[in-house]
Specification:
The complex is a heterodimer. Helix content of chain A is about 45%, strand content about 10%. By secondary structure, chain A is α/β, with parallel strands linked by helices. A 4-stranded parallel beta sheet of chain A has the order 2-1-3-4, covered by helices on one side. The termini of chain B are far apart. Chain B is globular, with a radius of gyration of 29 Å. The chains are: A alpha/beta, B alpha+beta.
Chain lengths: ~325, ~475
């Protein structure tokens, strides 16, 4: 009799799951967009981050715990990118998404991290990240790898929709490959463009399109520069011939503008996450937007495309 | 009949929850229950796999009906349009199964090596996360007869240690070493303090936090901890948004906080049942000792026959896209003295409203208020009915600068005829997350000598400090 009861219970639980959408909570909008593109209408996705804010300083409000409380998957950077993540996780009281469970999705899996500190690290290096530069989402190839990680996790907890997820994941991976080619070709005339960024968030982006990051306005991660350090940056930009300053949506654009003005450069505010600007409403459009704005800024700063330079040289001959 | 079957099926998960809870309480059938659960799990997975297989067969049949063995052009990527790494990833997706990949040791090592995750493991790796918080505090006051307000010193060094002690539990230990001078809220000029510096080590918090012991949405603390009365009482002193504790908490709970030993249970009501709202209920059964001699109202010397009970309930809601509201209510009852003839009843209400910059910038605002009404027996024949409140408003100016003001007014919890009020504007500068400077002016008046105080505070942290509360904006 007890067996019968358990079987009925099991059937009821399975029946209650059939047709239910997979609940996915992500720390950033980037993971959320991948999840939506893979899961389509068979998933409910919620991102704690909205897009323009600094991923390191998101308010992990109790209302976010409501979403995480019923989540099947919690998708995050896996690194020390989101120091607020543990507060959220503890408050959510959802053992399905705890460390070691299938619902805990570490998107850094399989990604070769840059700038992994070697030797002793401490706070004299600013807000140094112990595992390496955590801004790995700014690269189409990395986005492909993250899609593979995520689709595996989705299939593991929702095998009934495996075929659907796989098709969409393949489409996403193919799409990102096309985007990578597209932005690389578009940016080719400006290959080697020297830029200064506010925060050290663009190292992985520089692998996707050939920009040369010669420095950051922050002397060290999360440290606001002193006036003397600002002057040093301006001097360095003049010396190196840097014509473009990139400021992230959450950093001090007035200071970035000041640095650009003093150095005879142009400043552009670029999103480093999906929805950092309304135009960057998908992962694909994030890269398209950033590339187009970078080219626009370079042109405005008087940087000539390589073809124009070659043409000019030909005319002179 | 069909309706009845579905009704029964819908009830079954609920029964399952009850049956499961009862089963875990017993120990005799544990192994049998585990075996049954494993069988159920296998059955569930099997059904899901069958369903997935049926769907896959259906999909392939549909493709055949469309006249080709290859996937439809709209759903399948072209191999020619992908480079080698992309193709590898496509293959990996195709091979993904319902169970997580079994990675080889070599793969794990290679992956971990890129993130510096593996080094020689020693017993030291099991040491807790340790943080040291130092609070350097200086003050200058117009009242020279208050020795606590005309000095500078390291107010406290706090040792914060945390680590997992079991899969279901974390351990927390907070040990402040403090150096301070008695600084009563209701300073009496006729009995000025002697200015003696009190140095000592306190056991501020030491508890085991059970975060996953089988009852959904329920957590527990067991040990000594800050009581969940209102909003700011749970903060350690270096986490206050201002230099000193708000007046109403000082009057009713303690100069820094009300801590006690016992059991704290916290339950989050399943959001699905209450319209996706966040409602948390806390019940704490404590010794009733409070902070001993330093506790203004709750101090019964920890007699086992007179425990105190604290309850708190809070509701947190996004009232608009960028506005978050938290409303809480607290009630504490216990004994004021050792012979259990003097009772304490404290009623609290708190509100926190946060506006976050929709552009992702720094234009963030915080508004917070707390009020306490106390009914405290100060003798077998005298009962004090006192009330107090504070209002805090804070504006973030840019990444590193914050400015705010706190307005205080409170009666003495032990003397309803005595009151004090104050205005405390402040400015805070974070050089960095772990190094903070604060300057605060305070005007204090009422049934105490009028004071004009200037405070200066430097707080620095090293080690593995946990994240601050969400509303600290940092």
């Amino acid at each position: 009799m007890r067996w019968l009861k358990l079987v009925v219970i099991g059937i009821a639980v399975v029946a209650s799951r059939v047709g239910a959408k997979l609940n996915i909570v992500t720390t950033t909008t980037d993971y959320a967009d991948i999840a939506r593109q893979i899961g389509g209408d068979r998933v409910d996705v919620h991102s704690v981050m909205r897009g323009p804010e600094n991923v390191h300083n998101v308010l992990a409000k109790p209302t976010e715990m409501v979403y995480l409380n019923r989540a099947d998957l919690f998708v995050h950077s896996g690194l020390d990118t989101e120091p607020w993540r543990d507060n959220l996780l503890r408050g959510a009281r959802n053992p399905r998404v705890n460390f070691g469970q299938p619902g805990w999705v570490d998107m850094s899996t399989g990604i070769t991290l840059k700038e992994v500190p070697v030797g002793k690290i401490d706070r004299s290096q600013g807000d140094v990240h112990a595992y390496g530069n955590p801004h790995y989402t700014l690269n189409p190839q990395v986005a492909q790898r993250m899609a593979v990680t995520l689709v595996k996790a989705m299939i593991a907890v929702d095998p009934a929709n495996a075929g659907f997820y796989k098709d969409n994941a393949k489409r996403f991976v193919t799409s990102m490959a096309a985007v990578e080619r597209e932005i690389r070709e578009k940016f080719a005339p400006y290959a080697g463009l020297k830029v200064v960024t506010f925060h050290n968030a663009w190292a992985y982006f520089a692998d996707a399109i050939p920009i040369d990051i010669v420095g950051t306005i922050e002397p060290k991660p999360a440290i606001t520069p002193s006036p003397a350090q600002v002057e040093q940056t301006i001097e360095m930009m003049r010396r190196e011939g840097v014509r473009v300053v990139i400021c992230e949506t959450y950093d001090d654009d007035r200071l970035a503008q000041y640095v650009a003005d003093k150095a005879g450069a142009k400043m552009v505010v670029l999103p480093d996450h999906v929805l950092g600007k309304p135009e960057a409403d998908t992962y694909q459009n994030l890269f398209r937007y950033d590339t187009e704005k970078l080219i626009e800024t370079a042109r405005a700063a008087g940087v000539r495309a390589k073809s124009e330079t070659e043409q000019g040289a030909g005319n002179a001959r | 009949m069909r309706t009845r079957v579905w009704f029964v099926a819908a009830l079954v998960p609920l029964l399952c929850g009850r049956a499961h809870a009862q089963t875990t309480r017993t120990t005799t059938d544990d192994r049998m229950d585990q075996f049954e659960r494993r069988l159920d799990e296998m059955e569930r997975r099997h059904q899901i796999e069958l369903k997935a297989r049926d769907e896959e067969i259906g999909r392939l049949r549909a493709q055949l009906r469309q006249g080709g063995g290859a996937p439809a052009a709209t759903t399948a990527p072209s191999a020619a349009a992908t480079d080698r790494s992309t193709q590898e990833m496509l293959n990996e997706i195709e091979g993904a199964g319902p169970t997580p990949d079994e990675r080889t040791r070599g793969e794990v090592m290679k992956d971990a090596a890129t993130r510096n995750a593996f080094g020689p493991r020693t017993a030291v790796d099991f040491n807790p996360g340790i943080a040291v918080v130092s609070d350097f505090r200086g003050s200058v006051s117009s009242r020279n007869d208050n020795p606590a307000r005309n000095r500078f010193d390291v107010g406290s060094i706090e040792l914060d240690m945390r680590a997992a002690v079991a899969p279901i539990a974390d351990g927390v230990l907070i040990l402040p070493v403090s150096r301070d001078v008695d600084d009563p809220l209701f300073f009496n000029r006729d009995e000025p303090g002697d200015g003696a510096v009190n140095t000592g080590v306190e056991l501020e918090e030491a508890y085991v936090f059970l975060h996953d012991f089988g009852v959904p949405n329920l957590t527990a603390k067991l040990g000594r901890f800050h009581l969940r009365f209102g909003r700011q009482n749970i903060l350690h002193s270096h986490d206050w948004p201002t230099f000193d504790n708000n007046f109403v908490n000082q009057s009713f709970l303690g100069s820094e906080s009300l801590n006690d030993s016992g059991l704290s249970l916290s339950y989050v009501v399943p959001p699905d049942l209450i319209g996706d709202n966040y409602v948390e209920a806390i019940v704490e059964i404590i010794s009733g000792e409070g902070n001993g001699d330093e506790g203004p109202v709750l101090n019964n010397s920890a007699f086992i026959d007179s425990p105190a009970v604290n309850t708190h309930i809070l509701w947190n809601h996004d009232v608009a896209r960028d506005w978050n509201l938290e409303v809480g209510g607290s009630y504490l009852f216990g004994k004021h003295n050792d012979d259990n003839r003097q009772g304490v009843n404290l009623f609290g209400a708190d509100v926190t409203l946060i506006h976050t910059d929709p552009t992702g910038g720094f234009d963030n605002q915080l508004f917070q208020a707390e009020a306490i009404y106390g009914v405290v027996d100060t003798s077998p024949i005298a009962t004090q009915h006192s009330f107090g409140a504070y209002l805090l408003a804070q504006q973030q100016l840019n990444r590193d600068w914050y400015a705010g003001v706190r307005l205080d007014w409170t009666k003495n919890a032990l003397d309803e005829n005595q009151e004090v009020w104050g205005v405390s504007p402040y400015i805070t500068w974070y050089y960095f997350e772990f190094l903070r400077f604060r300057l605060e002016y305070q005007y204090k008046a009422g049934d105490v000598p009028t004071e004009n105080n200037l405070y200066f505070q430097v707080t620095w942290i090293f080690g593995a400090h946990p994240p601050h509360p969400y509303w600290a904006m940092r």
